[in-house]
Design brief:
- Among the domains are: 1-126 and 916-942, P-loop containing nucleotide triphosphate hydrolases (Rossmann fold), CATH 3.40.50.300; 128-191 and 795-872, 3-Layer(aba) Sandwich (Rossmann fold), CATH 3.40.50; 197-258 and 730-794; 346-401 and 545-605; 411-525.
- Helix content is 73%, strand content 10%.
- The chain is built from 22 helices and 15 strands.
- A hairpin with a 2-residue loop joins β14 and β15.
- α6 packs across α19 (796-820), α8 runs antiparallel to α18 (727-793) and α11 packs antiparallel against α14.
- The longest helix is centred in the middle third of the chain and has 74 residues, at 527-600.
């Protein structure tokens, strides 16, 4: 990560807006008095990137970083990673209590939430917040103490604190202690359970198994006895069952004997009902004939009275009709006078109607003439508008003709832009793959440590010896066997393969860059003006598109006006035709009214009223005579018709009556016999009411006879079978069977109890075996965690981890130290850090280093630690905080040379943070922080 620009406002001591441009800074000094706000610049970078600040524990410390008296915090940080630029902006308002974050890649905003922004930044940097805050600022003073510790454990504590292992080791120690106590409890529980299972042995199992076999044999012998007795008992029970059945049958037979008289009576009743059924139809016919004759006699009497009444009414009506018929003959003369008067009235009404129609026609003709004039004026206006729109259409057609040429140029530029955009996306994809591959490389290097730890565990399980302290399970320590686990060579080979793949990806990226240059070279215009020229073409095409739309609109309006003009002309022609028709109609009406006036002569309104009165009187007289005539004619005809129909009906009744009497006479002998046999017709009908029960009664008689005969045969058969049954023998055998059954049940229950005990003993023995095996495994784990716990308490494990990490830090620090001096770090056989002087080929103590040598060695260790902690992520910048005040005067005088060495060999942006004023002259590039009361300002010197 390389900082490019930092803008902050309302952040800690920077109340007013301050902007720092880092783009031209390489090796510079951040200078200011204590408390001026030097470290706050680095806090602002952390706040912008992760929304957190190392010195504050809260996740979002907005209120803590807010300047006193300010209402908002604003931090904008622009940085680059591998040449690709990014920008993050964080804003918080105290008034609203809300904040927001925005993130940009290559100037383009990404729509990400706050959590996603932090994840994306961690992915880009190749490290998270915890690692970033450790490698961004290196505490120089602590590396001096790390190089030359005052006591044996100080170097270990400093290294673990700088790497961040203190908390990890504490958690690991807690976890080991928890697991130790957990295993201790499991062992205690298992020992208690094993003590409880101690009595469950194989001998006990065999003893119970023998008792079970004896019980099974006893059950088998008893089953044989029970089967023999059961066969005898079953035979006797079958005979006893038949004897019981015989007694039941005899009881049923006695009941049948008691019902014998009842059945005989029922048989006699069945015969009477069967006989009554023979007379059922004749009796019904006889009764129907009697009823019908009574009805006909009643109708004959009523019709005879009605005939006499109708004859009397008809004579009276004939006399009245003759009078009205004479008046009806005179109606012809009345009708002739009525028709003449009615014709005069109709002609007068026609004359009045024509006059009214002529008045209406005159108004309509005047209105049509006005409408025709208005339509002629509208048609003239539409013709003028059509001419104007036609001219505009011709002008637009000329403007649109250049569209084809512009479209060709537009497609060419669009294709070029698309290719350039695709190349850009491919380049971004390659950069993403390169980033991903670099992260994988980092992950594989991380796995080396995991392999080492796994080897420790495997070695301990296989040999029982701890590779950290050399201790074996018997408690003795053999330091000669203590060694460092070797690195997995296969994993190193995979790392080399990934590095080769990384070089290939970078070569592909360079090829895409060359292809992009070729496209830019073929452009007809300068690439800087490409977008401007492209936009001009787009604007011109857009204008042509608008002209096309305008042309389309004008064409549609022209067609609409043409259609409207044609409709108006059509309407005008229709109006003219209607005017001509109305004029012709008016002329015809004028001729007709002249003829009517000649016919009517001197007829006035008064004489017309008299005619109407005469017409009404005549009409009333004619209607009265006609109504009276037709009314009495209809009444006379109706009476004649009723009389004729009544006489006809009376004749039919007399004829039917004679036929029914003959039929009744034929049935008299049969009815006589029925009365003789049953006493009366009512008695016959009483028997007929029970005919529906006849089939049921027959079924009851048949069932009785069948059951009677069946019981007789069954009783005879069972009497022969049960003759020899012995009750005493049956009871004796039954008691013996019940006694043996009870004993058999007890043996079966005993067998179940023994089987249950046997299964329980088997499970307990199995559980004991499993528990003993599991106990040994847990016991071994317990011993391992006991040793680890003791190592943790005595700091042996912490020493092992710090020694392993020290080797990694030294390997990386030697890379820088070799650039600064002819020395390299080594660890001697006493596990002490020493300096190897290549010029003389000998080792010497770090305490023998001069002030300048100590400074360069500390810087190398700081750079080495930063590389290890960041997992070799590309650190393009670093800040070294303080630590120069303790240098001797000679070393401080020679800082120019040391800084120049760092500048030439560190290959990264380095910022030195210090409050010492005499360091300023040693830097050409400086960021000066000044305190002004309650706020600070920043000045940059390049």
């Amino acid at each position: 990560m390389r900082p490019l620009r930092l803008t902050l406002e309302g952040f800690t001591t920077y109340k007013k807006k301050q902007t720092i441009d880092f783009s031209n800074l390489e090796f510079f000094l951040i200078q200011g008095k204590t408390g001026a706000g030097k470290t706050s610049l680095l806090d602002a970078m952390c706040y912008a990137l992760f929304g957190r600040v190392p010195r504050y524990s809260q996740q979002l410390p907005h209120e803590e970083v807010l300047s006193k008296g300010s209402d908002k915090v604003y931090v904008e940080f622009k940085f680059s990673v591998k040449g690709k630029e990014y920008e993050v902006v964080r804003y918080y308002s105290r008034i609203t209590g809300r904040g927001e974050v925005r993130f940009y890649e290559q100037g383009k905003p990404l729509n990400l939430k706050a959590k996603q922004v932090e994840e994306r930044i961690s992915q880009i940097l190749g490290m998270g917040y915890d690692v970033f805050t450790k490698v961004l600022v290196l505490p120089q003073g602590q590396f001096d103490r790390f190089l030359k510790p005052q006591k044996q454990t100080e170097r270990r504590d400093i290294l673990n604190r700088l790497i961040g292992y203190e908390e990890v080791l504490k958690k690991l120690s807690d976890r080991v202690s928890q697991e130790y106590h957990k295993l201790e409890q499991e062992i205690e529980y298992m020992e208690r359970e094993l003590e409880e299972l101690k009595s469950y042995t194989v001998d006990l199992y065999e003893e119970k198994k023998g008792r079970l076999e004896e019980t099974v044999e006893a059950i088998r012998q008893m089953d044989i006895q029970l089967r023999d007795i059961q066969e005898k008992l079953s035979h006797l029970e079958e005979i006893k069952r038949k004897l019981d059945e015989l007694n039941d049958l005899r009881s049923k037979f006695s009941l049948l004997e008691s019902r014998k008289d009842e059945v005989e009576s029922l048989k006699e009743r069945i015969e009477r009902v069967e006989k009554a059924k023979e007379y059922e139809s004749p009796i019904k016919q006889f009764k129907w004939l009697s009823s019908k004759l009574e009805d006909l006699n009643r109708q004959e009497k009523e019709l005879s009275i009605k005939v006499e009444k109708l004859r009397s009414l008809l004579e009276e009506e004939v006399k009245a009709f003759q009078r009205y018929e004479e008046e009806y003959v005179k109606l012809k003369e009345y009708r002739k006078v009525y028709d003449e008067l009615l014709q005069k009235k109709e002609k007068w009404e026609r004359h009045t109607k024509i006059r009214n129609e002529l008045s209406t026609l005159q108004l309509e003709i005047h209105q049509l003439k006005q409408e025709i004039l208005k339509l002629e004026e509208q048609i003239s206006q539409h013709a003028s508008q059509l001419d104007a729109k036609k001219q505009k259409i011709e002008d637009l057609n000329q403007s649109i003709q250049e569209e084809a040429e512009l479209l060709t140029e537009y497609r060419l530029l669009t294709s070029t832009k698309t290719k350039l955009e695709n190349l850009r996306k491919q380049k971004e994809e390659l950069v993403r793959q390169i980033d991903k591959l670099q992260q994988e490389l980092s992950g594989k290097e991380k796995s080396l440590i995991e392999r080492i730890l796994e080897s420790l565990r495997e070695s301990y399980r296989s040999t029982g010896r701890c590779l950290v302290c050399g201790r074996v399970e018997d408690g003795h320590t053999n330091l000669e066997d203590t060694h460092v686990v070797q690195v997995d060579t296969k994993l190193v080979m995979k790392v080399d393969e990934d590095r080769n793949k990384l070089e290939k990806l970078k070569a592909s990226l360079e090829r895409l860059q060359e292809e992009e240059k070729g496209l830019l070279k073929d452009l007809p215009i300068d690439v800087d003006k490409l977008e401007e020229h492209y936009q001009k073409i787009v604007q011109r095409l857009s204008k042509i598109k608008e002209d096309k739309q305008t042309l389309k609109t004008l064409t549609e309006e022209y067609e609409i006006l043409s259609h409207l003009k044609a409709q108006l002309e059509k309407t005008l022609e229709a109006k003219r035709t209607a005017l001509h028709e109305k004029l012709s109609r008016m002329q015809a009406l004028q001729e007709e009214i002249k003829q009517l006036e000649d016919t009517l002569g001197n007829l006035t309104k008064t004489s017309l009223n008299q005619i109407e009165e005469e017409i009404n009187n005549l009409k009333e007289l004619i209607d009265t005579i006609s109504n009276n005539y037709h009314e009495h004619l209809e009444k006379k005809n109706r009476l004649e018709s009723d009389l004729k129909a009544t006489i006809s009906r009376l004749e039919e009744i007399l004829k039917s009556k004679t036929s029914l009497e003959e039929q009744k006479l034929e049935l008299s002998p049969i009815i006589y016999r029925a009365r003789t046999e049953f006493g009366s017709l009512e008695a016959v009908e009483d028997f007929l009411k029970e005919k529906e029960k006849l089939e049921v009664w027959k079924k009851q008689v048949e069932d009785y006879i069948t059951e009677y005969r069946t019981l007789e045969e069954k009783i005879k058969e069972l009497s022969e079978l049960t003759y020899s049954f012995d009750h005493e023998l049956y009871n004796s055998i039954k008691e013996e069977y019940e006694r043996l059954s009870q004993k058999h049940k007890e043996l079966v229950e005993e067998k179940g109890r023994l089987e249950e005990q046997l299964n329980n003993i088997s499970e307990k023995i199995k559980r004991r075996s499993e528990l003993e095996g599991k106990y040994e495994k847990i016991r071994r784990r317990y011993e391992l965690y006991r040793l680890l716990r003791e190592d943790m308490k005595s700091n042996k494990f912490q020493d092992f981890v710090s020694k392993h990490m020290l080797r990694s830090v030294i390997d990386r620090a030697n890379y820088y130290l070799e650039k600064f001096s002819p020395y390299e770090f080594r660890i001697n056989n006493k596990e002490e850090l020493v300096i190897y002087d290549k010029t003389v080929g000998a080792e010497r103590s770090v305490y023998s280093l001069s002030g300048g040598e100590t400074f360069l060695a500390s810087i190398s260790l700081a750079f080495g630690l930063a590389d290890v902690v960041s997992d070799n992520s590309p650190l393009e910048s670093m800040f070294i905080d303080e630590g120069f005040g303790s240098l001797d005067s000679e070393t401080r005088d020679n800082l120019d040379d040391f800084f120049e060495l760092i500048k030439q060999n560190s290959n990264r942006v380095v910022g030195i943070i210090s409050h010492l004023e005499d360091l300023a002259e040693k830097f050409s590039q400086r960021i000066v922080v000044k305190k002004h009361g309650d706020y600070s300002t920043v000045e940059v010197y390049y």
